[in-house]
């Protein structure tokens, strides 16, 4: 596929991941003036007519828009996370099909995997159980996009693909304490403890669960590579293939932030899924993607970006 003449809709294109994807599209030959980025204030994808308006005349739709949050946000807003994400995705794909969009790229989530999945997670394990409870409404809503994309391909010959990224991070991440994910939440708490010269910082859970993280520039590269070169019904994992415990991650962030206090774990708070690490071989085989950014390097860039932003505010 050549992008130079393609009209591309990137939902969520003004957001964290979306900004990186737009940059990568342009670097891969897309014309910036042909990339449409709908804004939620004027284009509510929960409304059918606004979905139809958004996709009219587009050649490619990359659906990144989502309502997301960390464990606390997920526990407090399960209904909204299910309804909003399901409705946005289902309506947008149907509108894209009706309007003759040539390719639809659906972005799923690692939260769609069963709570207890053999590590590393293989795409064929996706239906082997129920997701971790705090993430289930969000994970299942996004998982339905896989069902829809496969059904539309089978019945209509619609070119839809489904990608499964792990936890993402990088400069520009969401540092709102109410909705942030694990890496910005840890950076925020640790830098605040350092600023206040606190002898310890209290973090959620036991620190035992493991996670895998993918730097935003790598994630954008993977999404654009799949847009260009992948056209099959099977889902594809996007990750770094590296696993780290939350405890080890917190210690690493403390070192990078220059915080020398102790870490206390609040075991009354949930841990979430016990382990996460993806089998990333399909992405490498199908469209040549392999993550390049080491976790420590990506964390250093993220911390420096946050500190610079705060120094200007």
TrEMBL record:
Record flagged with keyword DNA repair: no
Pathway terms, separated by semicolons: Nucleotide-sugar biosynthesis; GDP-L-fucose biosynthesis via de novo pathway; GDP-L-fucose from GDP-alpha-D-mannose: step 2/2
Site (Important for catalytic activity): 109, 111
Superkingdom of source: Bacteria
Keyword Metal-binding belongs to the record: no
Positions annotated as active site in the UniProt record: 138 (proton donor/acceptor)
Listed InterPro entries: Epimerase_deHydtase, GDP_fucose/colitose_synth, NAD(P)-bd_dom_sf
First-level EC class: oxidoreductase
Keywords: Isomerase, Multifunctional enzyme, NADP, Oxidoreductase
GO biological process, alphabetically ordered: 'de novo' GDP-L-fucose biosynthetic process
Domain NAD-dependent epimerase/dehydratase: 8-239
Reaction catalysed by this enzyme: GDP-beta-L-fucose + NADP(+) = GDP-4-dehydro-alpha-D-rhamnose + NADPH + H(+)
Binding site for substrate: 189, 204, 211, 271
CDD domains in alphabetical order: GDP_FS_SDR_e
Residues the entry annotates as binding NADP(+): 12-18, 142, 165-168, 181
EC number, as in UniProt: 1.1.1.271
GO molecular function: GDP-L-fucose synthase activity; isomerase activity; NADP+ binding
Coiled coil location: none
Function text: Catalyzes the two-step NADP-dependent conversion of GDP-4-dehydro-6-deoxy-D-mannose to GDP-fucose, involving an epimerase and a reductase reaction.
Family from the record: Belongs to the NAD(P)-dependent epimerase/dehydratase family. Fucose synthase subfamily.
Protein name: GDP-L-fucose synthase
Organism placement in taxonomy: Bacteria, Candidatus Kaiseribacteriota
């Amino acid at each position: 596929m050549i992008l130079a003449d393609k009209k591309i809709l990137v939902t969520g294109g003004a957001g964290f991941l979306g900004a990186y994807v737009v940059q990568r599209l342009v670097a891969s030959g897309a014309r910036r003036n042909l990339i449409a980025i709908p804004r939620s204030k004027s284009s509510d994808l929960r409304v059918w007519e606004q979905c139809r308006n958004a996709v009219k005349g587009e050649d490619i739709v990359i659906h990144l828009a989502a309502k997301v949050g960390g464990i606390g946000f997920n526990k407090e807003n399960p209904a909204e996370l299910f309804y909003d994400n399901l409705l946005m995705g289902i309506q947008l794909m149907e509108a894209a099909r009706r309007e003759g969009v040539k390719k639809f790229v659906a972005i799923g989530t690692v939260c769609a995997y069963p709570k207890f999945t053999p590590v590393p997670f293989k795409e064929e394990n996706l239906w082997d159980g129920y997701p971790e409870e705090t993430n289930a409404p969000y994970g299942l809503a996004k998982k339905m996009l896989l069902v829809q994309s496969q059904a539309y391909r089978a019945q209509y010959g619609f070119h839809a693909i489904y990608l499964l990224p792990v936890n993402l991070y990088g400069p520009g991440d969401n540092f709102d304490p109410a909705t942030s994910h694990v890496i910005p939440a840890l950076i925020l708490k640790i830098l605040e403890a350092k600023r206040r010269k606190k002898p310890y910082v209290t973090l959620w859970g036991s620190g035992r669960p493991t996670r895998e993280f993918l730097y935003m520039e790598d994630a954008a590269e993977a999404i654009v590579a799949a847009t260009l070169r992948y056209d099959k019904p099977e889902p594809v994992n996007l990750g770094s293939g590296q696993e780290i415990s939350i405890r080890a991650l917190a210690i690493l962030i403390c070192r990078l932030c220059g915080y020398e206090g102790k870490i206390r774990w609040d075991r009354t708070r949930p841990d979430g899924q016990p382990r996460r690490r993806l089998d990333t071989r399909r992405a490498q085989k199908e469209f040549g993607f392999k993550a390049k950014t080491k976790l420590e390097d990506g964390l250093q860039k993220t911390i420096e970006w946050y500190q610079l932003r705060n120094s200007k505010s």
